[in-house]
Amino acid sequence: LPLTAAYSAHTGPALSDQEPQSHQVSRRRILNTAFAAASSVTFGSLVLGQPDSAYAVVYVDPDRYGDKELKSATVNKLRQTIRDALLKDPNLAPCLLKIAILDALTYNASTTEGGPDGSIVSVILSKDAPSSVCVFLKPAAESLLEMYSKVKRTTETTMADIVAFAGAESIESFGGPRTVVQLGKLDTKGSAAGTYTDLFSKSTSKDAVMDRFVSAGLNGRDVALLFGAVGAMEQVLDSLQEEEEEAEEENEMGDKAVFIPSSFGAPSEIYGRNIGSMDNSIFVRALSDLKGKKQPTYDVFRDDSVAQWVSKYADKKNGFLKDLPFAYGRLEALGTTYTGGKIGNLLGSSD
Q1: How far apart are CA 344 and CA 351, in angstroms?
Q2: What single string gives the DSSP state of each residue in 192-256?
Q3: Around 57, how many Cα atoms within 13 Å sit in the side-chain half-sphere?
Q4: Model confidence over 262-275: pLDDT tens digits?
Q5: Using one digit for the tens of pLDDT, what is the confidence trace for 285-294?
Q6: Given a cut of 60, is residue 165 above it in pLDDT?
Q7: pLDDT at 311
Q8: Closest C-alpha to 130, from 34, 60, 199
Q9: Which long-range contacts (CB under 8 A, 24 or more apart) does 91-94 make?
Q10: What residues are paired with 113 via a beta bridge?
């Protein structure tokens, strides 16, 4: 079974309002779905049925990083590298989550092509990158490239895994829940770059956002949770900025504080201290705006299928943080097919 970086097992029903149905069921699809179900039971992860590998772009090799001990070492290395970068520059966190979301939303449920393969990083950093997406995301993409190079010096990894883990670690570093991430994604070779739109811009309409999520097989609840996570993290950053403006940054000698990575503290802070504590206040504010006929932080919160979840999470303080790992798990499972090892032998996709 594949190793998932499930830091706290959680079982329960899927979040989907309506799961996409396939009109053709092949032996390959049945084996993929059965394998994903077994993984979900064992590790508490939420993994959707997988598309035929002939059309899928994102491949996951459960045995890519070796035995359990080597896989655990890889997870530790990834998380520590990402957390160190976030502690140096907390402003990267919401951008890293946005990159992970946009990367995954290249998946098209009708064609079963695209998905979270990490290719968005090279697109953002390319000379022909669309300015609408890259204005605020380029520093985060550059940071991802630095993380990749740092980890690669001592540990085998892929940009697809870096991007997926960066989104999850960003959530947890801001006091969010521990999130399931499937380790072993392969970088896609020679794939066409996906189409990326800045879904988080205030000028992006709710219809444009919903079209992208629905075409990927996701729903209003996923939108509420993922946009809520980005909004909650940005609220934490706003609070930190206000605190920094009030505090004196220089000590009595006139020297500025130097960042020193530390893994001491509570078990939840083994990779470093938490940057903040995200909560459901983003939904409380959005619900107040909706009731007052005001424009919410994100226009998509006005969509009926999203607004119902905005109302729910505004009323339930812990509901948002409890459900968020499921939404991120669904996002990162888009378009993936297991390959390599014993599963590769069963599916006929191993080298």
Answers
A1: 8
A2: PPPP---TTSTTS-HHHHHHHHHHTT--HHHHHHHHHHHHHHHHHHHHHHHHHHHS--B-TTSPB
A3: 27
A4: 545 555 555 557 78
A5: 999 999 999 9
A6: yes
A7: 97
A8: 199
A9: 91/237, 92/139, 92/140, 92/143, 92/170, 93/170, 93/173, 93/174, 93/233, 93/237, 93/275, 94/170, 94/230, 94/233, 94/234, 94/237
A10: 108
Total-model pTM: 0.76
**Residue 130: phi, psi to the nearest 5?**
-65, 125
The predicted-structure confidence for 34-56, as pLDDT tens digits, reads as follows 333 333 333 222 222 333 333 34
pLDDT class of 14 with cuts at 50, 70, 90: very low
Q: Which two tokens stand for residue 350?
A: 């191993």
Q: Is the separation of the CB atoms in 350 and 38 below 8 Å?
A: no
pLDDT confidence bin for 206, thresholds 50/70/90? very high
Q: Would you tell me how many other CB atoms lie within 10 Å of the CB of residue 259?
A: 9
Q: Which residues pair with 336 in a beta bridge?
A: 58
Go through the chain and tell me how many residues it has: 351
Which residues are within 8 A (CB) of 239 and not within 5 positions of it... i.e. 6 or more apart? 276
Give the pLDDT score at 39: 36
* Amino acid found at 266: A
Q: For the chain, how big is the Rg over CA atoms in Å?
A: 20
Residue 337 contacts residue 349 (beta carbons within 8 Å): yes
Residue 17 DSSP symbol: S
Q: Other CB atoms closer than 10 Å to residue 268's CB: what's the count?
A: 13
